[in-house]
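Q: Give me a protein?
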Amino acid sequence: MQLGQKVFISFGIFILIYRSTSPTSEGCLKALIRSSGGAQKPPSVSPTELKFIYLPDWDLDWILPDLLFTKTSTAVEWKAVASAIKTLVEEATFEATNESLIFRAMDPSHIALVDLNWPNTAFEKYECDKPFKFSIRVEDFVKLIGRTDAKDSVELSSTEEDALLLRLMNGYKREFRIHLIESTSGTAPLPKLELDARISMSKSVFEKVLADISVVADQVAMSALKENVSFGGKSDVGAATITLDKNGADILELDAKQEAKSSYNIDYLMSISKALGSVAETVTLEFSSKKPLRLEWKLNEQGATVRYFLAPRISE
């Protein structure tokens, strides 16, 4: 505690609180205390007043003000986010503000970029009074998130600069403390693109298309016209072509301002689609001739999204 605040704990039951009369400390004592049964405000303590406060069934580390507190009702979104990040980088730096939690990074070869935007309204609960930037080892985070069950609620919080607290709850409660790491990498810039073709389809159709093309090729050629979109691939093994009509059941949306043709690495696409396919039912593709591909998945109906940018394969 800072600014003249003192807290003494006796057997985890009573807390003795004293707040100094210094003007700088006035109003600084935020006893943001939560319990599984719901939050309650502690009795008010006026300057120079000394009190014992009884706190039944509260976790005492919640007494410190949070740099960040997030809660989701399930672990599905976090699992998808962790899997998506794992496809590109070994270390992840998140930036939290009072409006949203964001992550943006490019793979070491500068071929692909992941952009996560998770607004505060898309969490069950979200608190971040001031900007907070933290970095974690992706492999460690994936392992911890992997311990979640389908119906677990997930609380991710931090009251200190060097650690995160991960709580998983669904009757069976687990708590993990994750050490943060120092990272010198900054947030990757977001590409500004004007793209000619926009296609939406179910994730199952998209995954089927990629799987079919991967049998004969390591890159997929996309071609969009006003009436259809086609996917193709060829190699020494052979060739494959898949055409989806605008009015067919497999296409949810097709808008092509003009003909667009480009090719992309199929392994990158299959990896990210597998990572996010568990949480999103549809995927939106946008591309132009010889420009990066932009894909978007919705993590939930409240506005959390993951966008993925992939550089085109330029033939010699």
